[in-house]
Amino acid sequence: MFVGIGTATNVATVIAGSGLGLLVGHRLSLRVRSTVTSALGLVTLLIAAQAAVQVSDPALTDAVGTSAPVLIVLGSLVIGGMLGSWGRLEDRLEAFGGWLQARLTRGDADEGRERFIEGFVISSLVFCIGPLTILGSINEGLGNGADQLLLKAALDGFAALAFAASFGIGVMASALSVAVIQGSLTLLGALLGSFLPEAHLIALTATGGLILIGVAFRLLELKVIPVADLLPALVVAPVLCQIAIALN
Question: What residues make up the domain containing 173?
Answer without folding.
Answer: 5-247
